Amino acid sequence: MSLRYAILGYLSTAPGTGYDLARQFDTGLGWFWTANHSQIYPELRRLTEEGLVERDATAISENVDKFVYSLTPAGREALREWTSQLPVYPPNRDGERLQLIFGDETPEALHAHLTAHRDHFVQRRQRLKETLDAIDAGTHERVKARVANRSKKAAAITLKLRQLAYAGDIARAETEIAWAEDALKWLETVRPQK
Amino acid sequence: MSLRYAILGYLSTAPGTGYDLARQFDTGLGWFWTANHSQIYPELRRLTEEGLVERDATAISENVDKFVYSLTPAGREALREWTSQLPVYPPNRDGERLQLIFGDETPEALHAHLTAHRDHFVQRRQRLKETLDAIDAGTHERVKARVANRSKKAAAITLKLRQLAYAGDIARAETEIAWAEDALKWLETVRPQK
DNA sequence: TTGTCCATGTAAACAGTTACATGATTGA
DNA sequence: TCAATCATGTAACTGTTTACATGGACAA
């Protein structure tokens, strides 16, 4: 049920099209939530029917329209209500851990597994750091747009929350990197010639 | 697609019923993967049809049977193949982060949010530590069963992989706790009288 | 006899992915 | 003119959750 709030949240910064949302889910917002356009367009229709968003047709040429969605007051209130609720933690579903604990009959695959894990999170950390730097430097477009029409005090909170979110994900990546490196060190003590 | 491997992995330790699997997904294995019985029974049927598991009827009373599933050689091979593959990382979907970054209009909810986050992961860490202690002490039933029919060297790998998995999840919990505590400290500097 | 656990299923709804489908605009 | 990007949709399939459905065993 978070898809709709990801959409409402995005539109709470500025109006946009379904295509904008799909693009955003592939880049910025995609760190926290993602969806394909095949999921976005039907959800936008439902949100419109429920009165949480409003759709305006904008001509992009003579006979072609695009649809710009914006939050209604009811939509803004629905978002506020949702962000006020306590977080709900979904059940763990970690295929990688399954590979690990049931991979005791294929230990020869461990080295590649752990290396891939480390590399994956090194890359992740890199991209997260770039985003966090952009936020800190004030060059992050979406954050700039969100901060724009807020008071100085409110803007500071917006900024801090983004920093918390990205710093948290960076910390997660670092935990994974340290874990993989520890595990690789152990592996070396077990099979030194490899 | 990991559900089937969670099942194959479970059965690779010892045969069991669908009910056993459901119970296990609610407890031990549930840390890494979970499923309801409504998903398990159909999957067991498919695995049987594909020849990866084998089902035997065992009488529990005169006219009632239960069905004990065990891995076939093909099933064991399918599991080996899967654990040999590199991990696949699913797209992030983190509703809590969305609540955070779009919660800049409801900052009054932040304190409860962060406290709940910390408490959630403190509890998680506690339960994880208990499990890891049981593994270290050799009192963890499933691990004991898995280690039982292995050579000393193979058993050591089984043990180490479990320890890695649980230690990794403990490290994750600790990252979350530290993150929430840092954020709470910042909150106090912003709104000291609360 | 009542509640809990054991045990196995199906059905409907919801969420997410992949594939099918179309067409305009823009820049190399 | 060819490829990339903009733009919007539907259909089929897979995976997950919630609800419906049934019945035996066992202990308080």
Rg from alpha-carbon coordinates of chain A:
21 Å
How would the global form of chain A be characterised? elongated
Residues in helices of chain A, as a percent range: 55-70%
Summarize the biggest pleated sheet of chain A.
Answer: 2 strands, antiparallel
Distance separating the two termini of chain A: 47 Å
Oligomer: homodimer
- Biggest sheet of chain A: strands side by side, in what order? 1-2
Helical element count of chain A?
Answer: 8
Largest interface: A-B, 70 and 69 residues
Are there runs of chain A of 5+ residues with pLDDT below 50, and where? none
Mean pLDDT of chain A: 95
Strand content of chain A: 5-15%
Would you report the number of β strands of chain A? 2
How does this model look, in words?
2 copies of one chain form a homodimer. Chain A is mostly helical. The first copy, chain A, has 8 helices and 2 strands, in the order αααββααααα. A two-stranded antiparallel ribbon of chain A has the order 1-2. The mean pLDDT of chain A is 95. Chains A and B meet through helix 1, helix 4, helix 5, helix 6 and helix 8 of A and helix 1, helix 4, helix 5, helix 6 and helix 8 of B.
Write the layout of secondary structure elements.
Two copies of one chain form a homodimer.
Chain A: H1 3-13, H2 18-26, H3 37-49, E1 53-61, E2 64-71, H4 73-84, H5 95-101, H6 110-137, H7 141-148, H8 152-190
Helix pairs in contact in A: 1-4, 2-3, 6-8, 7-8
Chain B binds a DNA duplex (28 and 28 nucleotides) through residues 1, 3, 17-19, 22-23, 35-39, 41-42, 60-61, 63-67, 93.
